[in-house]
Amino acid sequence: MNALKIKIYQSLKIVIMTILMIPLSGCVLAPIPNSRVEGFAVQSRLLDAETKQPIPNAKIIAVDGDTSITDSDGRFELKKHTQQHYGFLLGVISYPVLPFTTDLVSRSRAFRVNAVGYPQQSFLVKEEEEGIEFSKDDPFLLIKSELLLKKKVISNLQSDGAKIGQ
């Protein structure tokens, strides 16, 4: 069973690292390559990156149409998915609706993911718990993660060579 988990982890790591290097627009999709996985679920928590406070009442929409609303602690769950691709849209009252992609299954790593069309926003994503739950009796991945929503100052972008107002 541990060998299967390691094999799944290694396959996912390679595919996700490849996906993160491809510039895409809209809601970005990342494949789960192992055909033995029949679906997956996501349990996450959405936090403001600066204050570390939970972001309640954010609407989370998966590519397959599954939706969830964060609770008062910023937690949400998307039930079992059977598609091999996934992606999310975040909608929060004080933050714009943003498509983003994330590496939810790579252990002990944090990635910065810029939201398409909103250069002043980015997400920092880190895994809350190490490990992926995988059961032979109920073959689906349970992905647990923590999403940090971070605001950037536009003046910092100008110093990085970005042109604003064009």
Structure in words:
The chain is an alpha+beta fold. It has one domain (2-154): Carboxypeptidase-like, regulatory domain (Immunoglobulin-like, Sandwich). The protein has two helices and eleven strands. It has helices at 2-20, 154-159, and strands at 30-31, 40-48, 59-62, 67-69, 75-81, 85-86, 88-92, 95-100, 110-114, 121-126, 141-151. The strands form three sheets. It has a five-stranded mixed β-sheet, with no helix packed on it. A hairpin with a 6-residue loop joins β9 and β10. The relative contact order is 0.21.
Task: Give a short overview.
15% of the residues lie in helices and 36% in strands.
Give structural attributes.
166 residues; alpha+beta; Immunoglobulin-like; five-stranded mixed beta sheet; four-stranded antiparallel beta sheet; 2 helices; 11 strands; 15% helix; globular; disordered C terminus; hydrolase
By CATH, the superfamily comes out as Carboxypeptidase-like, regulatory domain
Strand sequence of the main sheet, in spatial order? 5-2-11-10-9
Would you give the CATH topology?
Immunoglobulin-like
Order of helical and strand elements: HEEEEEEEEEEEH
**Overall domain count:** 1
Largest sheet: 5 strands, mixed
Mean pLDDT: 50
Q: What's the helix count?
A: 2
Which blocks of ≥5 consecutive residues have pLDDT under 50? Answer: 14-38, 83-89, 92-144, 151-166
How many strand units? 11
Q: Could you say which overall geometry the principal axes of the C-alpha atoms support?
A: globular
CATH architecture: Sandwich
Please tell me how large the radius of gyration is: 16 Å
What is the quaternary state of this protein? Answer: single chain
Helix content: 10-25%
What distance lies between the first and last C-alpha atoms, to the nearest angstrom? 54 Å
Q: What proportion of the residues form beta strands (DSSP E)?
A: 35-45%
**Which CATH top level class fits?**
Mainly Beta
Based on helices, strands and strand pairing, what is the structural class? Answer: alpha+beta
